[in-house]
């Protein structure tokens, strides 16, 4: 009987966490500090993080342009690496980040760039400050 009570409480805790994420649209864990802002017409993104994880929070409500996706990039020493597509609200990625790296967002075909780097216009960039 005691196990069932613990299972019910655990289930309620998980349901509450899911509800908070659904209502506020933010992750329960917000790593690190404010690192950067990426801004372009109709698109504003706040970036929080630390040296291992980044959270991109979309501040504007404008939807992705029809048939296009916003893609996130990390640029270090001239090398470009995709961090994935920008979700409608919050995108969390694991990435090793150092001071001086550049974060960027580009406008790509739906599903992302068909090549190793941006194929569409780079809309905004921001340099990562000292961590």
The gist of it:
With 131 residues, the protein is α+β, with helices and mostly antiparallel strands. Helices cover 18% and strands 43% of the residues.
Task: Give the SSE map.
Elements (H helix, E strand, L loop, with lengths): L1 H23 L8 E8 L2 E7 L3 E6 L9 E9 L2 E7 L4 E5 L7 E8 L12 E6 L4
Antiparallel strand pairs: 1-2, 2-3, 3-6, 4-5, 4-7, 7-8
General description of the model:
The chain is of the alpha+beta class. The chain has one helix and eight strands; from the N terminus they run H-E-E-E-E-E-E-E-E. The protein has one helix at residues 2-24, and strands at residues 33-40, 43-49, 53-58, 68-76, 79-85, 90-94, 102-109, 122-127. The strands form two sheets. Strands 1-2-3-6 form a four-stranded antiparallel sheet, with no helix packed on it. The longest helix is centred in the first third of the chain and has 23 residues, at 2-24. The protein is globular, with a radius of gyration of 18 Å. The N and C termini lie far apart (49 Å). Mean pLDDT is 84; it is low at 26-30.
């Amino acid at each position: 009987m005691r196990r069932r009570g613990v299972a019910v409480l655990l289930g309620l805790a998980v349901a509450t966490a899911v509800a908070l994420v659904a209502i506020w649209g933010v992750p329960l864990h917000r790593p690190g500090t404010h690192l950067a802002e990426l801004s372009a017409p109709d698109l504003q993104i706040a970036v929080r993080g630390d040296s291992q994880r980044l959270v991109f929070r979309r501040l504007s409500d404008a939807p992705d342009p029809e048939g296009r996706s916003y893609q996130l990039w990390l640029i270090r020493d001239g090398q470009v690496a995709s961090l994935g597509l920008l979700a409608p609200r919050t995108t969390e990625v694991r990435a090793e980040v150092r001071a001086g790296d550049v974060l960027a967002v580009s406008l790509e075909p739906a599903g992302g760039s068909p090549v190793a780097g941006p194929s569409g216009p780079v809309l905004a960039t921001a340099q990562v400050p000292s961590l």
